[in-house]
Predict the 3D structure of the following.
Amino acid sequence: MAAQKGDLLSYRPDIKLLDATIRDGGLVNDFRFSDEFVKALYETNVKSGIEYMEFGYKASKELFKKEDFGKWKFCDEEDIRAVVGENNTDLKLTVMADVGRCDFRKDIIPKKDSVIDTIRIATYTHQMPGALEMIEYCHELGYETTVNIMAISANREEDISKALELVCASPVDVIYLVDSYGSLYPEQLRKLAYEYCNAAEAVGKKVGIHMHNNQQLAFANTIEGIACGASYVDATMSGMGRGAGNCFMEQMLSFLKNPNYKLTPTLKFIEKYIAEEKAKGSVWGYDVPYMLTGAFNRHPRAAIAFIKEQKTDYSGLYQDLLYEIS
Amino acid sequence: MAAQKGDLLSYRPDIKLLDATIRDGGLVNDFRFSDEFVKALYETNVKSGIEYMEFGYKASKELFKKEDFGKWKFCDEEDIRAVVGENNTDLKLTVMADVGRCDFRKDIIPKKDSVIDTIRIATYTHQMPGALEMIEYCHELGYETTVNIMAISANREEDISKALELVCASPVDVIYLVDSYGSLYPEQLRKLAYEYCNAAEAVGKKVGIHMHNNQQLAFANTIEGIACGASYVDATMSGMGRGAGNCFMEQMLSFLKNPNYKLTPTLKFIEKYIAEEKAKGSVWGYDVPYMLTGAFNRHPRAAIAFIKEQKTDYSGLYQDLLYEIS
């Protein structure tokens, strides 16, 4: 274990905020955001001093039908440019590409022709060779890259260490610690964060943190993770994201002391656009079913289905989950 | 700092859960719970294996009018007995009495004549002599006592240490670490929890923890606090409590591994009674205004008023709070 980095009254210039509202929030509404929402979010991120904005996925058009999703499932270059023009701002733009669910050789163009700055490669530990191939490819095209190793709470420690070793030997810039199931308790998170940070620092890489709120621990785990040395922080407006959602951007802007960060533009965005998104019927956030899948260290799909069907028989869901485990 | 107590797969028999739903939740609905709600909650606590249930306050009938509140503001002996009879169960019963807002010499009767087991004395640091007088009085009447030193996030460390010294020299059984404003970050909470636990252990007392959820840290801080050695844990059903509410009882039952604890009765209570309480219009839980007062280390009253008036101008509230501080 290393010593705590930073304290509560100063700020660490190495910390960068990444707004993942369109990408993780797109999992709530099938990426059907209004153009006005996306444009307002872009302007909000610029005004708030947030360093990165993620637009969505580069998903395969062979595997997914265009008509089943909004445009941010695919993030075509011209759709991003329609929002940001040449993006003459300090805000860096990212997209995510899932190993095995994208046609990266076709859909990711050389950096010099793109407004995108950073490609985030999402992988499970069992897909590491595919992830490494994509990291190499995107790096050679000229992009900054991150690797987001998902669902590690369900992995054996040995596999996590091996995956870390592999990505540390790759040209990736940032290695993300991801709690896909919202299952990690702070004492587990700290142990992993120190392992990631020690491995990454030794080879000059950074560590990012992406938490889910199934057990109302997304904010706590995020600030504990940065105290352990993580410096890239994923958050979304009011936590909008799959299931229980993510770490809240307004909480991070309120917590971090970097004078570049401005809370007011983000609060104004929430007042108007998050309120409208909820009024449209988008549902996310902590609820009993997510607490149960989080505590059981399970994918939230059973909880998502339960809530979509507007069920409230929590004790029945608990029995079902117990039965599935045994 | 001491070493962590306990781990994630075993359980500590010293940990006791206290259901504060009627008391802290009563601050949401002026203690106007239906008799059915209170009876069902009592039965739920017994079935769930929860160790303590708090009924409400012993408030002064001189200072507060009976007609302005439900009966749990006053907790008359006969009202508790109407729910629990002789309480022939393992569940211990508590009430809270605020220094300066109760007539303890009149309203607290000898333990031998009461079904109440434990008197919880709530105090600010500036009221310590009054708290010590009440501790002595209740102890001599035969009760177990706890002292809940409130709003310490707004106190100087020197005053907190002095207050600890005073209560450690008193006959009180349990000393509660209370985050009234939901303002403490885990790194601050741990430091305080170790200070409380070291002081209490030296004189054979226990430490309790009572957190608020203004920054979505109630559960995180509670489990961090017990890892530091606290053993009495306040929680409420679905976090029902003033403003942003408390630590969620269902999360504690899901987290703790004591085989006496049963989650199902608590989930059934939530499905029916918490849903009904919300349908009646009771509002509590994390929201932007509470995040702001928590981050500013302020009493949540401005946030409570803002939400009661159904305002959503978060950026305006933020400016108001900034102005008040400066």
